[in-house]
Amino acid sequence: LPPADVNATAETNRLLQRLYALAEKGVMFGHQDDLVYGYDWKYVDGGSDVKDVVGDYPGVAGFELAGIELGKNDFLYGVDFEQIIKQMKVFNAKGGVATISIHFYNPVSGKDAWDNSVKGIDKRLVEGGY
């Protein structure tokens, strides 16, 4: 199947073809921040709780960039940006699919995305609320 976006980049098309090929083999399991920290380690080259348990890396690894919008270099859970970039490249070289998420900090309280201490924030962000 072609991509939905006719202007998709060559990289996007390669990823799409890779995902189609992988889908024929089965289901991909994912784990957030798998290569940057784990149960009792942080920033260990080759580290992965999933690999420790099942003998192989997950097919998908997510990386969180909360705080990038504030100019931070260490993101949610204290993960360093350079480590994220390094491990995303390593994971890609292993054939894994990396994803990025950004849970933006609360723009009113300045706390993390899960802060719900400010009531009526929807009306402050979107005219009339939602």
From TrEMBL:
InterPro entries: GH, GH26_dom. The gene is RsManH. It comes from Symbiotic protist of Reticulitermes speratus. It comes from the Eukaryota. GO terms for molecular function: hydrolase activity, hydrolyzing O-glycosyl compounds. This is Mannosidase. The keyword Ubl conjugation does not apply. Pfam families: Glyco_hydro_26. Residues 10-130 form the GH26 domain. Transmembrane segments: none annotated. Keywords: Glycosidase, Hydrolase. PROSITE patterns: GH26.
